[in-house]
Structure formats: structure tokens, C-alpha cells
């Protein structure tokens, strides 16, 4: 027995010696939810974490200032000119960029990368194909003029910033043609290889990716710009907020990305941990299906907008993670409407319901993802709806399950979060305020379609706004569109996301941008 | 005569093997059919797992056809089975890699844990069981029985969380979740897939220490369950044996007491214990789903959980086949050992 005790004691002592407190000096260790990454190919990446990966490992043609989005500047494209008819963009390619493989970046790589997105036609391809590119016409529309010049012809004279902003998103990443084509199989343009590999020129390069486990990046020593400060970045998938907090407080990680308000409050007295915030583009909204006989009544839609406790939710459930916002363009976008006309006003809502002949209320369901903060938000909404006699039944489900139902228009109310695809206002106008065809078998199925909202007039207005060349006038058009939308639409837009980054006090220089593909690691020090 | 006998025996052996094969086949088909059906009945759209929320209708339809989801259910199943027979488990949506490659990568982590846990179970559980059978009613016996009972009734993920809270968060004795500290990840080449062995091969002693310390908590916990079960079973087998007359005879003959207990009595327990060890090994694989999730241990259990939550059906089916195969394999192996060790079973 005595021996057993001694043995146990010795083992515990040995183990205690094994625990290391700090992360290595040259490595940034981060806990994040990265199980949304299903591909590493910039032509296919369309998820938050994937976009962040591409933003740090690939160079895009164009980028924007994270603190002032309207300031667009060239990256791979050193400069550009636009023809008078607004259809032809000529890009001058920067010389002196080398891929991590050692290959020189030329106009061929740029042409190849853009064409590849269109020919592969994966989820994000529409960001480019909405300009009229098809696999059949790319030979003519995306052309190499010489080794440092590329000419691109679009199909309509859109506001020029629309196309430029689209090139700042992930599909505008330039891939290493020689490297990718060396791995081509059966004409797949290297897709099956690049899905799990890397061929870029960004400040970091891929070391390893284990899906839902870790993503390891190494500094790219061939990078043409200022080299990354830290040698390695390790991102570990940890989905639990409490676990992330534990690791952060113990110093086993440098940054935690997904802490819930409770855990952030719990660390308030810990001077080793600091918080940083940045407004993101995603908005929280309720989608009211217009196939539902109650929700299609204009007064009911209006009433529901008065039955949300915006302030209460902002201060309690969302505490710092979101800010009240009631228009479809998030703050920071051209023409974003910052007016917030709706507050919790039960009397007004009751009057509106009475006008609709529903003074006794009605029953309705809401499909809700069973994660936080969605569930808590749903409960709060249920409580305020009840004050006007509306019986809201919450139908909980896994993310993909509720989405399946939503996409098939089988919901009553859907509580969701929508992130813009690129920094031009058209991205959200396109989905919230356009519905070219409301038929069940429509070719395009934006959010307005998902909620069966038939709006030929508003669609025309949104189409006009994206063709306006004058930025000032264009902003005016969006403001007007949003004011109307805010009042009549079946969307109860409530909040805009704020990303909270929790870091050890010694970590500096992590760039938080307005979208996930503009969160940059390269200037981070510790 | 002799020749005929051999012939008959051979054909008997052949028949037995055939019967076994047919049984294994049926079991597998059943297992696959049920998993397959569950995967198709759940109201989650597997196409969304591939194309994401924002895909256009054309893209959605194209991928649906690529995945064969437009075909009738029986045809989908037929296609799946025939590709499995060709050794192709399909491609995982989540990792973008062939499922077989994924499983080969994650499975050693689970095996490493289950194997260590079983060793702990055998080397601690069996002696404890023997002691408590011999010294019935003693303090040690009571402690063993309480430990055994707790191991039976406490859910493993709860104990795992408690262990993390005390040994990692509060007292800082052991490292947190994961197989190694994150910055040691991907340094050692996976030769065998067993972290500890790979570290020895690569002579990375620092990483070895780190990996070892990471293993203590999950292995001990799983080992605890295995130990609880084994000690209980050993105890009751031993009590049974110690009552037998041959034990009395041996004692009367003046055989040393330790030989009576550890040689004669335990020797006779060995046969049923094999089955028990095999069963507990199977249970460990099952228990790994929860333990691995709590400890972020990158094995088959975590892989299965992630795939399930992401509607990644190929991976779920593939993992099910592997777990099923191991279960069957372990059971068949214990049957075989049985025959070797017990002449009556031949």
C-alpha cells in the first residue's frame, strides 16, 4: 500500500513537470471554431474560417483598407484603368511577386485563376459569374495582353466599385498556375489536389490541415511584401467557449476567437487577458414566410417589428457581441442606413394587429438553430411576442436541418444570420431586396425568394442602384431602398455582428477587418 | 481411413469457415443498411454540407446528381455497397479526403488509447479482483467493490470533465485537451500512428514526454472503466473457483497458498476472463466517442461525432464499418483463444 502511494505521488510529480505554461515565442497559437472549413481551394472556399485562411495565404488582385472600406488599393494588380463604356477593366500586374513554390507570378497566373473559378463553378463562383462570365466566353472576356497586363470585359456598365469589390473577395485570389496544373487529373484544373493543398503567394503558407482539428501555417519566406512577424500560426479547433477560455487563461493559447459574453465577463479581472472588438458585416434577422396567411398581412409584419426587445437583447444576451441595426446594409458599407425606427412597443403592435383583425393573436412556429446565442434570442422573442397574444412555438434543430427547411420555404419564421459575400452594397441588396422570379422552380433563390416575397418593383430599384456610376447618387438610392424595405419587408433585421477577439496581454497587431477574409495575422507580435 | 478422416475434417473446417463468412457478411449488411437508412431518413440535406447555405439552385442540383441522391433509395444503397466491396468508402465532405485515408489516420489514436486502457484494466483490475475475492469482507474488498460500482454507474464524459477541471484547471498537474500540446503537432512523422512509438522512432523525447502526459488522463479514465468491470468479474469468477474441491485438495496437499490462488484458481478463471477482456475492449471503442470529444482526442470517436454533426454520411458509414469489423474481429479472436485454451471447446 505504501509503495502504491509513493508510486502515485511520483507519477503526479513527474506529470507536473510536464506541464508547460507558455506558448513558443515565435508561434501564434489560436483556438477557434474551424470545422466549417471543407476545402482549401480559393475557387471553392465560401465559409468564414476558410475565407480567413485564404486571406492570409493568398494574394488577391485588389484589397481595401480595413478601417475605411471605400479606400480600395491594388495588391497583385498594381493599378487599373476602366474604359469609358465601363465594360473593360485593364489591370497592370505587379512585378516581383513570387509564389511560395518559387515560381514568378505573371499575367498567366491571374488569367488562369479567374478562369478557373468560372469553369469549376463552385459555390462562390457567382461572385464572378454575375458579371456575365461563362465557361464558354472566358477565352474572350478574360485575356492576357502581355506578361504584365490583363484585360477583363464584363457584360453591363455596373458601378465600377461593384466589380472591384468582388475581386477583393476570395475568388479574386491568385493561384500558382504551374504548381496547380502539375497536379491536374482528368481535366479537373487541379481541383482535387488544391482542395487540401496550397499554391499561393501570401504572407503565410499552409503547413498542414486536419479537418476539424488543426490548421498550421508557416511564414512564407518568399513573400514579396513585409514578411510576417511570427514564424508559425497554429489554429486549433475548439468549439466550446468554456474550453477556449480555460486555455486562454492558462496561457496555453494566445488568442481565443469564439468566447461567449458569459466567459468574457468571467475574465474581467484577469489582467493577462485583453479584449478587442470589430464590427462585422453579418446581420441577424427574422425571415417571415409570405406563404403563411398571417405573416403575409402588412400590419402583422409591421407589428412583429415592434415586438422585439432590441435594447434588452443587446444588453443581456448579446452583450457586446452585436449592436442594434435595422437595415439590410451593415454599417461600414456604402449607403448603409443607420436609422433604427423600431423599439419594443406592445401597444402599437396590438393596435396594428387589431387593424389586421387579429386582436386575439395567432400561433406561428420559428425554426431555430440549437446553438448560442440563437436559442436565447428565440426565447426572448417568444416572450415579447406573447405580450401581444402571438403564440410563438420554437422548433429547434441542427444548423443544416433548419437550413434545409428554410431553403425549401417550409418555415413560418426563420431566425438567421447573414454575412455579405463582398464589400459592395449590392451583395445584400441582391438577396434581401431582389426576387426576379417568385416561382417554386426559380433560377435564382435569394432570401427574398426563400420568404416568398414577390417584389418586381423593388427588384428594379435594386438593379438600377448597381448600375449607378456616381457613388454619391448610388448611396442615396440604397438609403431610399432601405427606408422602404425597413417598413414593408418580411425581414425583421435586428442586429449587426461584432467580432470579439480575446487575447493574452502580450499579443499585439492582429488585424481585425470588417469581414473574415480581412482578418490578418502577418503583423501580429507577442 | 486416416486419409478419409482428414478429408472429412477439412471439409468440416471449410464448412465452418463458410458459415462464419456468411454470418459476418449478413451482420455487415444489416449494420450498413441500418446506418444507411438512418442517414437518409434524418431531415438533414447532405447536399448543403457540400455546397453551403448560399449556393445557387443549378449548383445545388448538379451536386445532388453528382452525389447520386436523385436515384431511388435501393439503388443508392446498391451503389454504395458495390463500391465498398471494391474497397472504396467514398470521399468525406468534411476533410475532402477519401474516408479510408481518414480512418487510417485517426484510428491509431483510438487504438493507442483503448490499448493502454485495456492494459491498465488487466494489470490493475485483475489483481484487485483476486485480492478482494481472497480477502472477502476486508477493507480492500469494500473499496474495490465501490470503485467497481462507480465505474459501472457514472457516465464517462462527466468523470472526464471533472478530471479536466481538477487536474488541469485547478491544480495544473496534467495538460489539457489534445494529444500533444498544439505547438508540437505535426512535428513527428506518423510512422505507426501511435504517437508514443513514433516519438521514440524519431527520438523526439520532449514530445514524447508531452504526449505521455497528455495521455495520462484519458487513458486512466478509460482504464478505470475497464478496471472496474474486470475487477468485478474477476472477483466473482475467483469466488466461484475458490469454492471448488480442487482448491481444497491443493491446499491439503500443501501447495503454497500463492500458487493455489495465482496458479490454480486464477488459471481456471483465465478462459472466461478472455471473453470479458474482449468485451471490455469493444466497450472502450464505444466509450471513446464521448471521451475523445471531451479530451479533443483526434481519434475515430471524435471523427465520427464531427461527421455526424455535419451530415457527412460517407464518413459515418465508413467509421461504422470499422467499429463493426473490430467488434466482430475481437469476438472471433476471443472465440479462437477459447478453443486454444479450453480443450472442451474444441
What's the layout of helices and strands?
The complex is a heterodimer of chains A (526) and B (346).
Chain A lengths: L1 H17 L8 E6 L15 H10 L4 E4 L2 E7 L2 E6 L5 E6 L13 H14 L5 H4 L8 H4 E5 L2 E5 L6 H8 L9 H6 L8 H4 L9 E7 L3 E6 L12 E6 L3 H10 L4 E2 L4 H6 L6 E16 L9 H8 L4 H6 L6 E3 L21 H10 L7 E7 L4 H13 L4 E7 L1 H9 L5 E6 L7 H7 L14 H4 L5 H12 L3 H18 L2 E14 L22
Parallel strand pairs in A: 1-10, 1-11, 14-15, 14-16
Antiparallel strand pairs in A: 2-3, 4-5, 5-7, 6-7, 8-9, 9-10, 11-17, 12-16, 12-17, 13-17
Chain B lengths: L1 H40 L4 H6 L5 H10 L6 H13 L13 H36 L4 H15 L2 H15 L24 H8 L2 H38 L2 H9 L3 H39 L4 H10 L3 H29 L5
Helix pairs in contact in B: 1-13, 5-6, 5-9, 5-11, 5-13, 6-9, 7-9, 7-11, 8-9, 9-11, 11-12, 11-13, 12-13
Question: In words, what does this structure look like?
Answer:
The complex is a heterodimer of chains A (526) and B (346). By secondary structure, chain A is α+β, with helices and mostly antiparallel strands. Chain A has helices spanning 2-18, 48-57, 107-120, 126-129, 138-141, 160-167, 177-182, 191-194, 241-250, 261-266, 298-305, 310-315, 346-355, 374-386, 399-407, 426-432, 447-450, 456-467, 471-488, and strands at 27-32, 62-65, 68-74, 77-82, 88-93, 142-146, 149-153, 204-210, 214-219, 232-237, 255-256, 273-288, 322-324, 363-369, 391-397, 413-418, 491-504. Chain A has 19 helices and 17 strands. In chain A, the strands form 3 sheets. In chain A, strands 1, 8, 9, 10, 11, 12, 13, 14, 15, 16 and 17 form an 11-stranded mixed beta sheet that branches. Chain A has a 4-stranded antiparallel beta sheet with strand order 4-5-7-6. Mean pLDDT of chain A is 91; it is low at 12-20. The model of chain B has no long low-confidence stretch (mean pLDDT 82). Chain B is globular and about 85 Å long. Classes of the chains: A alpha+beta (526), B mainly alpha (346). Chains A and B meet through helix 1, strand 8, strand 10, helix 9 and helix 15 of A and helix 2, helix 3, helix 9 and helix 12 of B.
Amino acid at each position: 500500500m505504501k509503495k502504491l502511494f509513493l508510486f502515485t505521488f511520483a507519477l503526479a510529480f513527474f506529470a507536473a513537470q510536464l506541464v508547460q505554461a507558455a506558448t513558443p515565442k515565435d508561434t501564434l497559437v489560436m483556438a477557434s471554431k474551424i470545422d466549417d472549413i471543407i476545402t482549401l481551394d480559393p475557387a471553392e472556399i465560401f465559409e468564414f474560417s476558410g475565407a480567413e485562411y485564404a486571406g492570409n495565404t493568398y494574394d488577391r488582385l485588389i484589397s481595401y483598407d480595413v478601417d475605411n472600406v471605400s479606400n480600395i488599393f491594388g495588391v497583385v494588380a498594381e493599378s487599373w484603368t476602366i474604359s469609358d463604356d465601363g465594360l473593360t477593366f485593364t489591370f497592370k500586374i505587379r512585378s516581383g511577386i513570387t509564389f511560395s513554390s518559387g515560381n514568378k507570378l505573371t499575367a498567366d497566373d491571374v488569367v488562369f485563376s479567374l478562369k478557373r473559378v468560372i469553369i469549376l463553378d463552385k459555390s462562390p463562383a457567382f461572385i464572378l459569374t454575375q458579371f456575365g462570365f461563362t465557361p464558354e466566353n472566358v477565352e474572350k472576356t478574360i485575356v492576357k495582353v502581355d506578361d504584365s497586363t490583363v484585360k477583363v470585359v464584363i457584360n453591363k456598365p455596373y458601378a465600377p466599385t461593384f466589380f472591384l469589390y468582388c475581386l477583393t473577395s476570395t475568388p479574386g485570389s491568385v493561384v500558382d498556375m504551374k504548381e496547380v496544373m502539375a497536379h491536374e487529373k482528368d481535366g479537373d484544373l487541379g481541383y482535387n489536389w488544391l482542395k487540401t493543398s496550397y499554391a499561393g503567394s501570401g504572407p503565410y503558407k499552409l503547413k498542414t490541415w486536419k479537418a476539424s482539428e488543426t490548421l498550421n501555417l508557416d511564414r512564407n519566406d518568399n513573400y514579396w511584401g513585409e514578411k510576417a512577424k511570427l514564424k508559425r500560426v497554429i489554429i486549433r479547433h475548439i468549439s466550446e467557449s468554456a474550453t477556449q477560455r480555460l486555455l486562454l487563461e492558462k496561457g496555453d493559447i494566445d488568442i481565443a476567437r469564439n468566447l461567449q459574453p458569459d466567459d468574457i465577463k468571467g475574465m474581467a479581472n484577469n489582467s493577462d487577458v485583453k479584449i478587442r472588438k470589430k464590427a462585422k458585416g453579418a446581420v441577424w434577422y427574422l425571415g417571415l414566410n409570405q406563404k403563411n396567411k398571417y405573416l403575409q398581412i402588412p400590419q402583422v409584419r409591421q407589428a412583429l417589428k415592434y415586438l422585439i426587445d432590441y435594447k434588452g437583447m443587446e444588453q443581456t444576451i448579446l452583450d457586446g457581441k452585436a449592436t442594434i441595426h435595422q437595415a439590410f446594409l451593415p454599417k461600414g458599407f456604402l449607403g448603409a442606413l443607420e436609422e433604427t425606427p423600431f423599439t419594443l412597443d406592445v401597444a402599437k403592435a396590438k393596435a396594428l394587429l387589431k387593424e389586421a383583425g387579429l386582436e386575439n393573436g395567432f400561433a406561428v412556429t420559428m425554426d431555430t438553430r440549437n446553438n448560442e446565442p440563437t436559442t436565447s434570442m428565440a426565447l426572448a422573442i417568444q416572450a415579447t411576442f406573447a405580450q401581444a397574444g402571438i403564440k410563438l412555438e420554437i422548433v429547434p434543430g441542427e444548423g443544416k436541418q433548419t437550413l434545409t427547411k428554410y431553403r425549401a420555404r417550409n418555415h413560418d419564421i426563420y431566425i438567421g444570420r447573414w454575412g455579405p459575400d463582398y464589400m459592395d452594397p449590392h451583395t445584400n441588396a441582391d438577396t434581401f431586396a431582389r426576387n426576379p422570379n417568385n416561382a417554386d422552380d426559380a433560377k435564382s433563390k435569394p432570401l427574398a425568394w426563400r420568404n416568398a416575397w414577390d417584389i418586381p418593383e423593388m427588384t428594379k430599384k435594386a438593379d438600377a442602384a448597381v448600375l449607378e456610376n456616381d457613388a454619391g447618387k448610388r448611396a442615396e438610392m440604397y438609403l431610399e431602398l432601405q427606408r422602404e424595405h425597413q417598413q414593408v419587408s418580411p425581414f425583421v433585421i435586428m442586429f449587426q455582428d461584432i467580432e470579439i477577439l480575446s487575447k493574452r496581454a502580450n499579443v499585439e497587431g492582429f488585424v481585425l477587418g470588417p469581414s473574415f477574409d480581412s482578418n490578418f495575422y502577418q503583423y501580429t507580435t507577442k | 481411413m486416416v486419409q478419409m478422416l482428414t478429408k472429412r475434417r477439412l471439409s468440416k473446417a471449410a464448412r465452418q469457415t463458410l458459415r462464419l463468412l456468411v454470418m459476418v457478411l449478413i451482420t455487415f449488411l444489416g449494420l450498413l443498411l441500418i446506418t444507411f437508412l438512418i442517414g437518409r431518413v434524418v431531415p438533414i440535406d447532405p447536399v448543403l454540407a457540400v455546397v453551403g447555405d448560399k449556393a445557387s439552385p443549378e449548383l445545388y442540383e448538379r451536386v445532388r446528381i453528382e452525389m447520386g441522391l436523385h436515384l431511388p433509395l435501393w439503388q443508392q444503397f446498391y451503389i454504395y455497397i458495390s463500391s465498398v466491396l471494391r474497397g472504396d468508402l467514398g470521399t468525406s465532405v468534411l476533410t475532402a479526403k477519401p474516408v479510408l485515408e481518414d480512418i487510417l489516420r485517426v484510428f491509431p489514436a483510438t487504438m493507442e488509447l483503448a490499448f493502454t486502457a485495456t492494459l491498465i484494466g488487466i494489470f490493475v483490475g485483475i489483481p484487485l479482483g483476486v485480492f478482494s475475492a481472497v480477502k472477502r469482507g476486508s477493507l480492500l474488498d469494500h473499496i474495490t467493490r465501490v470503485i467497481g460500482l462507480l465505474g459501472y454507474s457514472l457516465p464517462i464524459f462527466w468523470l472526464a470533465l471533472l478530471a479536466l477541471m481538477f487536474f488541469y484547471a485547478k491544480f495544473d498537474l496534467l495538460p489539457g485537451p489534445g494529444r500533444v500540446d498544439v505547438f508540437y503537432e505535426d512535428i513527428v512523422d506518423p510512422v505507426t500512428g501511435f504517437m508514443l512509438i513514433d516519438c521514440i522512432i524519431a527520438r523526439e523525447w520532449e514530445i514524447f514526454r508531452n504526449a505521455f502526459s497528455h495521455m495520462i488522463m484519458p487513458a486512466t479514465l478509460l482504464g478505470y472503466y475497464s478496471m472496474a468491470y474486470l475487477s468485478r468479474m474477476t472477483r466473482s469468477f475467483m469466488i466461484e473457483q475458490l469454492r471448488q474441491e480442487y482448491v481444497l485438495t491443493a491446499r491439503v496437499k500443501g501447495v503454497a497458498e500463492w500458487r493455489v490462488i495465482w496458479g490454480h484458481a486464477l488459471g481456471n478463471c483465465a478462459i472466461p476472463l478472455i471473453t470479458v477482456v474482449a468485451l471490455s475492449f469493444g466497450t472502450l471503442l464505444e466509450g471513446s466517442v464521448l471521451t475523445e470529444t471531451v479530451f479533443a482526442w483526434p481519434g475515430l470517436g471524435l471523427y465520427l461525432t464531427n461527421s455526424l454533426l455535419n451530415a457527412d454520411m460517407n464518413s459515418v458509414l465508413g467509421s461504422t464499418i470499422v467499429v463493426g469489423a473490430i467488434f466482430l474481429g475481437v469476438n472471433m479472436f476471443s472465440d479462437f483463444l477459447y478453443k486454444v485454451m479450453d480443450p472442451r471447446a474444441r
